[in-house]
Amino acid sequence: MTKKAHPKSLQEAEILAEDMRRVAYLLQTPMKRLDADETNMLALQLEQMRSRVYEEAYPAIKARAFLPVSFEVDPGAENFSFERTDYVGSAERITNFADDLRTVETSGQKEVYSLNSYGNAYNYSIHDLQRAAFTGRPLSARKALAARRIWERKLDDVAALGDAPGNIATGMINDANVSIEGLANAGTWATKIGAGNVDHLLADANALVRAVVVDSKELYAANRILMPLDQYMLFSQTRLADTGETVLEAFLRANPMIERVDSWNKLSGAGAGATDRMVAYEYNPEVAELVIAQDFTVLPPQVKNLAFQVLAHGRTGGCTVMRPLGMKYMDGI
Question: 236-243 contacts: CB < 8 A, separation 24 or more?
């Protein structure tokens, strides 16, 4: 007769019973794991997310709307350059056999700009994937959309002001080669309205637009004007006493070549002495453009610990102002 082995204690008996229950459960229940099907599901859903991210509208992010966009620079380049050219000379009346024609000379200055990469990332945990597979619902696209929006905001910053630590010294609204036109009448717009001088707002805007044409000797004519949000609200809502029009309506009637008047929060405090700045310019890739060497790009997911990390990045050189005469600033509005 074989003698049965007995547990040495009640605690050991309980541990043994628990182990036996676990073994029985594992034998009867299929093992759950992140298999190839779930990985493929992740790749498919991320592809669908990329489409949604690229189709998403970004009304508050404005650099792409305010500037012509160039994708000509190769993303593998560290720098890109252009030649800022000028010319002198004249054409004179001549007679037969003339041998003293005036010559025309050109001069050029090479400008070199840097390209920078900007990126971010977002994660999906193993549990996120398992839950999506169990419920049949797609992964939330909120993280992907947030990553795109944050990247676009960075692009907006670089386009407006540059990135000095990244060797992009200036942007569209702080270029040292663009001259500053003085106010037609001293004082901020809020002060002028408070004093009953609403027409001074119109005079300032007219003076800025006129300066582009006059200083460039009609080579360029402003067709867009940007200002901080507070001033835009004053410009678009304050009415002139004599006509009942808003200042904006009167301005557009007097300047039919203006295609767009808009607000940009980047202009608040962008002027000399941290004053508010207004900018008028000709929307023309010869005047200024936004250089995007590589647009926002989502990379394949990577396993990191118990999660999948999705990396995203893009590459830009910011805004290059190639013809400063086609743009003017006005500070202190």
Answer: 236/261, 238/193, 238/198, 238/201, 239/198, 240/198, 240/199, 240/202, 241/198
Residue 248 clears pLDDT 90, i.e. is over it: yes
130 Cβ partners below 8 Å, 6+ apart?
32, 34, 38
- Rg over CA atoms, the chain: 32
> Tokens in use for 44?
């498919």
Alpha helices in the chain (DSSP H): 10-28, 36-55, 63-66, 126-135, 142-161, 189-194, 199-215, 229-237, 247-254
Q: What is the mean pLDDT of residues 256-277?
A: 97
For residues 242-270, one letter each, b for 16 or more C-beta atoms within 10 angstroms of the residue's C-beta and e for the rest, the string is eeeebbbebbbeebeebeebebbebbbeb
Q: Cα 286 from chain centroid?
A: 20
* Angle between the N-to-C axes of helices 247-254 and 229-237, in degrees from 0 to 180, rounded to the nearest 10: 80
Contact 236, 251 (CB under 8 A): no
Contact indicator for 67, 289 with CB cutoff of 8 Å: yes
Residue 130 and residue 38 in contact, taking contact as beta carbons nearer than 8 Å: yes
Tens digit of each residue's pLDDT (9 = 90 or more) over 40-70: 666 666 666 665 555 555 545 799 999 999 9
Cα–Cα distances in angstroms (integers) from residue 221 to residues 181, 277, 317, in the given order: 15, 19, 26
What pLDDT is recorded for position 146? 87
The CA distance from 330 to 275, in Å, is: 10
Please check the confidence at residue 19 and state whether its pLDDT lies above 60.
no
Distance of alpha carbon 110 from alpha carbon 321, whole angstroms: 13
Cα separation, 54 vs 81, whole angstroms: 29
Specify the DSSP class assigned to residue 197: -
pTM above 0.70, yes or no: yes
Return the pLDDT at 33: 45
Strand-pairing partners, residue 168, are: 163
Give the 3-state secondary structure of residue 236.
helix
